[in-house]
Amino acid sequence: MTGPGTALVTGASSGIGRAVAERLLADGWTVLGVSRRPGMTGDRFHWIEADLLEPGAVLDVARRVGPLNALVCAAGMQHTAPLGALDHDNGRRMWQLHVDVPSRLADALLPRLLDGGRVVVVGSRTSSGAAGKSQYAATKAAVVGLARSWAMELAPRRITVNVVAPGPTQTSMLADPARAGTPPRMPPLGRYVQPEEVAGLVALLLGPDGGSITGQQLVICGGASL
What we know:
It is a single chain. By secondary structure, the chain is an alpha/beta fold. The protein is built from 5 helices and 7 strands; from the N terminus they run E-H-E-E-H-E-H-E-H-E-H-E. Strands 3-2-1-4-5-6-7 form a 7-stranded parallel sheet, sandwiched between helices. Helix 2 (about 55-65) runs parallel beside helix 3 (about 90-110).
């Protein structure tokens, strides 16, 4: 791939997904934004309304998509609880959105993903484990296994697959009551990661300078993982 093409971005109405969509539009991409609510407008932005947790939603999205140069899975949620008080319905929903949805989407869209294309899944620096976040961390650890496996399979087609793993990022998720039990800690650099910074790393991986990076988890956390 020598220049911007068409990218599908999930979770495009807010947070990191919206920042990614805005950055790709600024870089000249055409963006297919998947979300429950409209996020933005523009000549090169096309909204696909979908609740990806609903049965059949992923296949419905796939049927509405043509040839793609990139797939970015940025839709996410976080529920926290310590062992002994786990909410297994919340755990199931996180697994579905973070692992099952990207798996189904990549599987369905593979015939439309052009040779030389790119896949990025938004993970988390907590994939190595975090107290009070075991269910969430498990889903993000699984994403790394998915991406590395897909990278091996797709290398003959020059399709790269990577995980961008942010630490505490300045989005509405920081104040979400669902994670009240594990309030965010300020990273050593003294500020939270900005969604635009995460989007910039995604843009690098999707651009010409990212063509030899594949099967990697790239952590952007302001030093939180030190």
